[in-house]
Hints:
Layout: H1 3-19, H2 21-28, H3 34-55, H4 59-63, H5 67-94, H6 97-104, H7 107-119, H8 125-143, H9 155-175, H10 182-204, H11 212-239, H12 243-247, H13 253-265, H14 271-288
Amino acid sequence: xxxxxxAYLLALITVGLWSTVASASKLTLAYLSPAQFLLYSSIxxxxxxxxxxxxxxxxxxxxxxxxRDLLLSVGYGFLNPFAYYLLxxxxxxxxxxxQAQIINYTWALTLTLxxxxxxxxxxxxxxxxxxxxxxxxxxxxxxxxxxxSLEFDNPEGVVAALASTIIWALYWVFNTRDARDPVLGLFxxxxxxxxxxxxxxxxxxxxxxxxxxxxxxxxxxxxxxMGIAFVLWLKAMKLTDNTxxxxxxxxxxPIISLFLIHYLVGEEIYISTLVGLVLVIxxxxxxxxxxxPSL
Length: 295
């Protein structure tokens, strides 16, 4: 199989896996709290990443990490998975899955906004239009079309979803300066984050027995969302001769996700969600095809 075809195949598999996250998260949160969900899925992901490191023959590299790398991992681990997934799972717990997952896809726009003060980048007029269009879509989704009354069914859930995009964007801004091997870096992030999650859960909720169905959901997210999808996406980006072609496939995910949410979770898909999705994806597409100004 040619490199580009293989890149497309791996990217499409990744998009397919990401499309199941909203449904799997919503179903699992019927049995686990967001913090419980995060702890068990992170442990599973940590184990999977360690196995991948051993298979790839990178164990010696792992053991030779510098103190600087370890300190960086504490900060990165706080951002992802600790803060990001805790906020995201809270959003899924409080909001309909269709709302939380589409709002989460605006992180690329949040990244553009954060790049202004943090990376000293200039934003073009088209990029500002992209941001306005997508966030108009978020407003339509969050208010279920009640734009003029600005009535939010669950404002706390909307804030959690938007806050998760800020954390995720910050994580990627800081990652632009991270020279570590991606798999090793992610493993170390999870290694330091798991104790953070454990103590957070211990002090806020206590440690209690959880249902088997909840654990199954955590295993699924830990393996496919936090682990395999990340590795497959990295592989696809390395194989492709045009990263934009691969990156743009991500626009398929929220569309597939809506079908899964309807049929697996049983949510009625609101007209406002569809309108908001068109606006969000329209803004993201406009940004994707806008040339970024140099620093």
